[in-house]
Design a protein that fits this description.
The complex is a heterotrimer of chains A (358), B (93) and C (411). Chain B is 74% helix and 0% strand. Chain B is built from three helices and no strands. Chain C has 14 helices and four strands. The radius of gyration of chain C is 24 Å and the shape is globular. The chains are: A alpha+beta (358), B mainly alpha (93), C mainly alpha (411).
């Protein structure tokens, strides 16, 4: 049976071939590539700084994290050091984008299960964060904000006050969401024991991010391989504690709690960042060498490997997307479940086709 | 037997019922046979109604027309491997 | 305790018909002055048998308009407005001020699409009428066309036996409850045929799921009715409502009414409501129409007004279901307070029975909509598990409780 490419359930454009026996799934094969835009090739014809426009659109829901990963890779290749305030601003931007991305996931996941109210409530909260991101960078999505060497502009004066107000409001609303979802018996019925993947399988298939942390594995790149100023921030990676992890409910809980942690990170970063200091340095135009950066994107481990050969554009850019590996692991999650659970499972791994197909 | 309105209605209902039951057994498409089966059962119930046993008519509709054709269609749909042509979606990128 | 606004619907329609025939007869007799045979036509029109036939036609039309136009529009409006407010948005806003003709387009300072939203559903119906009625090429055309007719007609049949007050009804049957349940039970057949005949994997799956769910939940429904019949002793909805028209406990002129929801039948009430929500195919039981998975489920291939029929009749079934719950457990149209004032022996209703009934039905619809839009969808095998494994034992318990309390004379 063919689910997609034109299907309201599949957020984005990909095809899923499931073999069904009655109502139980025996095998599944994802077919991707419908959104392949040839990123790795077209990034070779643009200068380093101008590629940020493209990397924004790799995963359009979570653009700052992807552009930041690219900038980090290029900086490591060029040997450029970002000033401290720039690093702190990047942390704030990343975490705000992470919250916005998770809210978008929630807005897509609720209606998958039939809870259409979640769509509107999540999007309403997302507006708060899109407003903050707009205040910070000038645009709501695809902001073109990180630069090789820092960020595009400094935080405006009223940013801190507005940020604190928005986050206070949001944390209140999160408690309301918990009542709507965590404590709803039907929600638990739909998501618990559904789409289970063991920790060993997840590691073998390269699943990362909240999908892996839901299996109980303590892998958060912000702690494991810290970048920017994450070492100076006190936060806790959300790992599923308990024996029965790896199902949709665990993934949901991990991603949900990450939103709370990100709020804490933003507030800490706003406290700790140095005021009135440079946020950007000018990188060299041409560069030679190679650099790689792996960051904790909203969906997992995003890795960029950039090779320069002395020209002002990259020689080769290699992108590793977390959803590419999660998608490969979906047959394991789907086998043995009912056909009606496909939406609950695929929604819980937070597919973003842009980064999967590049 | 007096040829009054009741008799006429009885004749009409019986004609429909006999016709429908013939269509049940002669139709090549099984789903249509199930449909005519439902019509047959409802018309039999209508004849009960004509004989002033409303309870029997309602029970006939409730049990027979509501459940038996559905059972028939379920059995039909769950056991046939190829009910319809597969839509052509195999040509991909 | 309260009286109906319309003491006898048949009489009211007869008066209306007589008035219409009289007006028409004026015209015919005017023509008859010139052409004599027309006078006989006028006499024939005014004869009793013709008047009776015309009265029945008028009665059915008025009831149809009342149910499938006014009530449907109102309940759809209530639902859409209510769940929009739950979701923190304004909701539908097309009202009379959006009409492009006089006198509604006179005020230039008023925003056109920011009204109460009552006419949005009319606008949606118009939109559906203008769409092309497609039939898939490889579908079984006869079955495809006939299944919406089956579903629509059996749903409308419910309203023949469903009264809206003690005077506002089409037919007073002895076995009206059974009639309503029989008309309800015809739906799985229509849905199954609709799902199959569109020649589409998704609709077939949707249709089978719908039929399985509806059949599974009919059983607790009927078992709860059996439990109730121990108390009422009759299947006549008029008698059932009349029995609830008294006070259980009185505090002067107020008191707790003797509705069956306050009796040991409360368990039956809960089971019946849950089973009815499943029969109405509402979220949390709307897997047959699960939008995220199966586009529109078994109604996917329908377009234009055929889709409008099936879609609209889902709401009509909701009204019928809520009305049934109200009649059986919530006292139907009996109002506990603000009943009547007697002026010179004539009972004048302050809040007539129709208003009580409508209030209860609409309030029940609001509660059902509230629950619908707050919970996710239950998976089909979980739905069937709940139906067969949980509801049936509880409804059997309700029967035992009903029979036991009746036998012991406690109620």
């Amino acid at each position: 049976m063919n689910m997609g490419p034109q299907h309201p359930m599949t957020h984005g454009l990909w095809n899923m071939k499931v073999k069904v026996d009655g109502e139980t799934i025996t095998d599944a094969k994802p077919e991707i590539g419908y959104l392949h835009r040839g990123y790795e090739k077209i990034m070779e014809v643009r200068e380093f700084q101008k590629n940020v426009v493209l990397t924004d659109r790799l995963c359009y829901v979570s653009s700052i994290t992807w552009s930041h990963a690219y900038c980090l890779a290029v900086e490591r290749m060029m040997g450029v050091e970002v000033p401290e305030r720039g690093q702190w601003i990047r942390v704030v931007a990343l975490e705000l984008q992470r919250i916005a991305s998770h809210l978008m996931w929630l807005a897509a996941y609720g209606p998958d299960l039939g809870l259409l109210t979640a769509l509107l409530w999540s999007l309403r909260e997302r507006e708060l964060f899109l407003d903050l991101i707009q205040l910070m960078s000038g645009a709501r999505m695809n902001q073109n904000y990180p630069r090789v060497g820092g960020v595009r502009n400094d935080l405006p004066d009223n940013f801190e006050a507005m940020c604190k107000r928005s986050i206070a409001h949001f944390l209140e609303k999160l408690d309301g969401y918990e009542k709507l979802m965590h404590e709803s018996k039907v929600f638990l019925m739909r998501t618990q024991d559904v789409g289970r993947i063991s920790a060993a399988d997840a590691i073998n298939w390269g699943v990362t991010g909240p999908n892996l942390r839901a299996c109980g594995v303590n892998v958060d790149l912000r702690r494991l391989d810290p970048y920017e100023t994450y070492e100076q921030i006190d936060f806790e990676p959300q790992i599923w504690k308990g024996a029965d992890g790896g199902d949709s409910y665990a993934r949901f809980v991990c991603r949900f709690n990450e939103m709370r942690e990100s709020c804490g990170i933003v507030l800490q970063a706003l406290e700790k960042m140095p005021k009135d200091s440079p946020f950007r340095t000018k990188p060299p135009r041409r560069a030679e060498g190679d650099g790689y950066a792996r960051t904790e994107d909203s969906r997992g481990e995003a890795l960029f490997y950039v090779i320069g050969d002395g020209d002002d554009r990259p020689y080769r850019v290699k992108i590793r997307s977390p959803i590419f590996c999660s998608m490969a692991a979906t047959p394991i999650m789907l086998r043995g479940n009912k056909l009606a659970d496909v939406v609950a499972i695929l929604g819980s791994i937070d597919v973003c086709v842009g980064e999967m197909d590049k | 037997m007096a040829v009054d309105g009741e008799f006429i209605v009885f004749l009409v209902l019986s004609a429909i019922e006999v016709l429908a039951s013939i269509l049940v057994v002669t139709n090549k498409r099984l789903v249509r046979a199930a449909f005519w089966l439902a019509i047959t059962l409802v018309t039999i119930g209508a004849i009960y109604l004509l004989f002033r046993s409303e309870f029997l008519f309602l029970i006939q509709v409730l049990v027979y027309a509501g459940a038996v054709p559905v059972l028939f269609l379920f059995g039909l749909m769950l056991t046939r491997r190829k009910i319809m042509d597969e839509p052509v979606t195999e040509g991909g990128p | 305790m309260s009286v109906p606004l319309v003491p006898s619907f048949f009489e009211s329609c007869r008066i209306l018909t007589v008035a219409i025939v009289w007006v028409v007869n004026l015209i015919i007799r005017a023509i008859g002055v010139v052409i004599p045979p027309f006078n006989d036509l006028a006499d024939w029109l005014a004869s009793d048998s013709v008047i009776t036939v015309l009265t029945w036609l008028v009665l059915m039309t008025v009831m149809l308009v009342w149910t499938a136009l006014f009530n449907l529009l109102t309940v759809m409006w209530i639902e859409r407005k209510f769940y929009s407010r739950l979701q923190d948005r304004y909701g539908i806003m097309v009202s009379v001020w959006s009409l492009p003709f006089w006198p509604f387009n006179r005020r230039k300072d008023r925003p056109t699409h920011k009204g109460w939203g009552y006419l949005q559903n009319v606008a949606d119906g118009m939109k559906l009428l203008q769409k092309e009625n497609l039939t898939p090429a490889s579908a079984d055309a006869a079955m495809f066309h006939i299944s919406p007719v089956l579903i629509a007609s059996t749903t409308l049949l419910i309203f023949v036996a469903l009264p809206w007050s003690s005077g506002f009804y089409v037919a007073k049957l002895d076995l009206s409850l059974l009639f309503i349940l029989a008309a309800f039970s015809f739906a799985p057949f229509g849905i199954l045929i609709a799902g199959w005949s569109a020649n589409n994997k998704y609709t077939l799956v949707g249709g089978m799921r719908a039929a399985a769910q509806l059949m599974a939940y009919e059983i607790p429904l009927i078992l709860c009715v059996i439990a109730l019949v121990f108390f009422t002793g009759t299947l006549d909805v008029f008698a059932i409502v009349a029995q609830q028209d008294r006070h259980l406990v009185s505090f002067g002129s107020l008191g707790i009414p003797a509705w069956y929801v306050f009796s040991p039948q409360i368990l039956g009430f809960l089971i019946f409501t849950v089973a009815m929500v499943a029969e109405m195919e509402r979220i949390p039981f709307d897997i047959p129409e699960a939008e995220a998975e199966l586009v529109e489920g078994w109604t996917t291939e329908y377009s234009g007004m055929r889709f409008g029929l099936v879609f609209g009749f889902k709401w009509l079934r909701m009204i019928a279901g809520a009305a049934l719950i109200t009649i059986l457990y919530l006292g139907g149209w009996s109002g506990p307070v603000f009943a009547t004032i007697y002026i010179g022996g004539i009972a004048i209703p302050i809040l007539p029975e129709e208003i009580w009934f409508l209030l209860k039905v609409w309030l029940l619809c609001v509660v059902i909509v509230w629950v619908s839009w707050s919970v996710p969808r239950v998976r089909i095998d979980q739905i069937l598990k709940i139906g067969w494994r949980r509801l049936i034992p509880f409804s059997l318990l309700a029967i035992i409780v009903g029979a036991g309390t009746r036998a012991l004379g406690w109620y």
